[in-house]
Structures are given as C-alpha cells and as structure tokens.
Design brief:
single chain; mainly alpha; 3 helices; 73% helix; 0% strand
Length: 71
C-alpha cells in the first residue's frame, strides 16, 4: 500500500512537471493531451465531456503531423 501511495505521488509530480513544460512540437502537445486522458478519464470510451473532445484533438494532431512529414 505504501508503494502504491508513493507511485501515485510520483505520477502526480510528473503530471505537474509536464504541465509546466512547454511543448515544442505537435507530438509534444499530443503527448500532454494523452497523459491527461490516461490520468483523468474513467475508461477508454468515456463519452462525458471533455474526454471525446480530447481524443478528437489528439487524432487531429496526429493527422496534421502525418501531413507535415516529408514523403
């Protein structure tokens, strides 16, 4: 139980650090949104706001990234 508590505290600290670090690429923005999704939503198909909107934004970013790749 102590290890779980320590892991939760570490995850919280990492999420806080992530939010304070500026993304410099679309992949970085997508990674930040993905971290929010994984930590915040109750299930992968949670249909309550803002989870579908965040999933949609991640998909949009991935599409833009693919279009910007050379070749």
């Amino acid at each position: 139980m102590r290890a779980e508590h320590e892991a939760a505290n570490r995850a919280e600290a990492l999420l806080e650090e992530l939010s304070e670090t500026a993304a410099t690429t679309l992949a970085g923005v997508a990674a930040k949104l993905d971290a929010i999704l994984k930590e915040g939503q109750s299930s992968e198909d949670d249909a309550e706001f803002p989870w579908p909107q965040i999933r949609s934004a991640i998909e949009d970013i991935a599409g833009i990234s693919r279009q910007r790749e050379p070749g």
